[in-house]
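Model it.
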Amino acid sequence: MSASSSLSSQCLKIGIVGFGSFGQFLAKTMVKQGHAMRATSRTDHSKICNHLGISFFIDARAFLEADNDVILICTSILSLSGVLQALPLECLKRRTLFVDVLSVKEYPRNFLLQFLPEEMDVLCTHPMFGPDSGRDGWKDLAFVYERVRVRDEIICSSFLHIFQSEGCRMVEMSCEEHDKVAANSQFLTHIIGRVFSEMDIKSTPINTKSFETLFQLSETVANNSFDLFSGLFIHNRFAKQELENLEHALEKVKQKLLEKMNEEQNL
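Modeled.
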């Protein structure tokens, strides 16, 4: 094995902050790859951690003193600041790579740069998949990242290799560009799905393929929490404009239909 490949596949000591469904989903693959995993969370997940071979820490101080190479932030968007501000960061004994996996990027980047000690490294990422879409593997699924403040390239490259080795499509992109693109794609997808859910759309005996796609979208989006949806709106500065664009587009379509109806009635 070459020196470069050896470095890229280095086993890491990874601590996860926030061990909900997404944190557990990522941890399973990291454990499979041989990384030493630790976790802390406001909820006691010691049983699931014991089952997975992960050390669970009730005490955040002990967690931070566990000599982690990487601290992976898997909180919700809305709870990020509260959770991190409760961590006793003075317990960190050395430079650590902080990595977030939130679905927005400018907000965690700005918060981490402001909140963390300057000697800590920061990598902002967004795996564009989850427990449902990544259930059968991560091959060809997009993984977006920006090296925001990275001085230990070995640790950073080793972490990115976790996703490269699973076949992810690695997309290096600025946090600003990510949020701009995501507002136009992910956020709009969630809006359409939420609207269908609010309308309580039902499957019918004569579904078209297009309707099946929309119906499946509404069910998929409904599986995500409203906190995630609201976080995509509140903490992505481009989302409000996309919501307004959608409202304007719907009004234009409505006006065209009414105009056509009037034409037909006046024939």
